[in-house]
Amino acid sequence: MSADDTTNIPRPEGYKALLANPYLTGPIKFVLPIVIALAIFAALYLIEPYQQFLVISGLLAAYFVPPAGKESIIPIAIVMGYPWWLVTLAIFLLDVAVSLFVVWNFDLALKIPLIGRVLESGMTAGRNYTDARPWIRRFSTIGLVLFVFFPLQGTGAMNGAIVGRLLGLEKARVFACVCTGSLASSLIIAFGSDVLLDVYQQNHALGIGILAAIVVAVLAAVAGLKLREKRLRERSPR
Question: Where do the TM regions start and end (predicted)?
């Protein structure tokens, strides 16, 4: 073997250059999140009876339609008899797929007519949210996790990934923050809903009382946040 032949042997750096090729990684980044989402429904089709598969598929599809969100879809699914861990896993993996798609394909997705309009509305909501809460910019990583964690309308994986891009965070950090907030939020809502359902089945009055207290607390917190945002807007210079 000649010296020239030895210099032509592929080195590890060659693989990195291959993975950095946009003509290879571009299609993968676009298709992989879609494959993950389809795999979720395929797995549910295999493990659930057909009628139950149709119901939970409808709930997961409704998850992407405002004003639905974790705070409504997860409790409904659990009340209908689905295991809390299954609902948590399905919602979390959907958030993984959505956040990957936005993080990897944000600029390209903006050019797609329907998806682009959805992302633009998410950008508007994200800017309004961060403008009303300037601490998110100061504590960008923690702020993004909390943004995704709190089960409020417009604070899901897609808008969380958009906010991360608006904050200028690295793609890997945005993805990690969205996944952390989504998993924590989904677990708490699902497990709490399951426990509350057990309490209600054993004692109807106690279950209703706990649910009413939770609803009142959430409404009070939302009202307090809205009032604080209004005061901040009134104080801010025009």
Answer: 30-47, 81-104, 139-162, 174-193, 205-225
Which H helix or E strand runs over 226? helix 204-235
Q: Which residues contact 32 (CB under 8 A, 6 or more apart)?
A: 100
Cα(204)–Cα(197) distance, rounded to whole angstroms?
9
pLDDT, one tens digit per residue, over 165-178 is 877 788 888 899 99
CA separation for the pair 94, 63 (Å, rounded): 10
Enter the tokens of residue 40.
């979720």
CB-CB contact of 88 with 74 (8 Å)? yes
What confidence score (pLDDT) does residue 228 get?
A: 63
Predicted TM-score (pTM) of this structure: 0.77
Q: What are the CA-CA distances from residue 84 to residues 73, 152, 227, 233 (Å)?
A: 12, 20, 34, 40
> What number of helices (H) and strands (E) belong to the chain?
12, 0
Which range in 16-20, 49-53, 164-168 is most confidently predicted, on average pLDDT?
Answer: 49-53
Count CB neighbours of 118 within 10 A: 16
Mean of all residue pLDDT scores within the chain = 79
CA-based radius of gyration for the chain: 22
Q: Is the pLDDT of residue 4 over 70?
A: no
Cis preceding-peptide flag for 67 (omega within 30 of 0): yes
Question: For residue 128, what are its two tokens?
Answer: 């309004």
pLDDT at 186 over 70: yes
Helix, coil or strand: residue 182: helix
Alpha-carbon distances, residue 169 vs 33, 181, 234 (angstroms): 20, 16, 30
